[in-house]
Design a protein that fits this description.
Layout: H1 2-8, E1 21-22, E2 37-40, E3 44-47, H2 54-64, H3 72-88, H4 105-116, H5 123-130, E4 137-142, E5 145-150, H6 156-171, H7 175-186
Parallel strand pairs: 1-3
Antiparallel strand pairs: 2-3, 4-5
Helix pairs in contact: 1-3, 2-3, 3-6, 4-7, 6-7
């Protein structure tokens, strides 16, 4: 838990651990059984199970950090497992990991190419190579067979978020994807 906190407090993004108040069950009412925890920024947390599992702990700490609230759950759901991986590997990046969504697609492609030591035409090309088709791509039939193309309705920021989310999903199982994420953090 300490290591998870230390990863998330980089750049002083979290209150001191002594300032974070853990709400007790008698202090909360009407919480659905499906809720494992919640955060009340800037400094209150509640967990159904004590101690919480590492992912839930990281997820709720993420909610205490000031960030773009329009994609609040994107941060919590997509970054919690990455934060836990960083903590397990004793890695403290120079920037707060929540900043990883600040990169652009060009930087992502460059990091992928450096880690995989292969020149891809695009991030889309990398995913087709991996056999992972992110939700911003769709299948089209052509005379030569099926091809995967980017959905033109998906904006650039969403492509970055979904690309990083796919890399995080694979990072637990593939060392190279984890290295791409570390390279992205180093580039910030």
């Amino acid at each position: 838990y300490r290591k998870i906190y230390e990863v998330l407090t980089i750049e002083n993004k979290l209150p001191s651990p002594y300032q974070i108040y853990i709400l007790q069950n008698h202090e909360v009412e009407n919480v659905r059984q499906t809720v494992f925890g919640f955060a009340i920024p800037p400094d209150k947390l509640w967990f159904r199970n004590m101690p919480p599992d590492y992912i839930t702990f990281a997820h709720e700490l993420i909610h205490l950090i000031e960030k773009d609230r329009s994609i609040e759950e994107v941060y919590g759901y997509n970054l919690a497992s990455f934060i836990v991986l960083l903590a397990k590997h004793n890695i403290k990046p120079k920037v707060n990991p929540l900043r990883i969504f600040d990169v652009d697609e060009i930087r992502i492609l460059k990091a992928i190419e450096e880690v995989y030591r292969y020149k891809f035409d695009s991030v889309d090309d990398f995913f087709v190579f991996k056999g992972v088709i992110p939700s911003y791509m769709r299948v089209e039939e052509t005379e030569k067979g099926i091809v995967f193309v980017r959905d033109p309705a998906v904006d650039q920021k969403t492509v970055v978020i979904l690309t990083i989310s796919e890399l995080i999903a694979g990072a637990e199982y593939e060392h190279y994807m984890f290295q791409v994420l570390l390279k992205l953090l180093d580039s910030l």
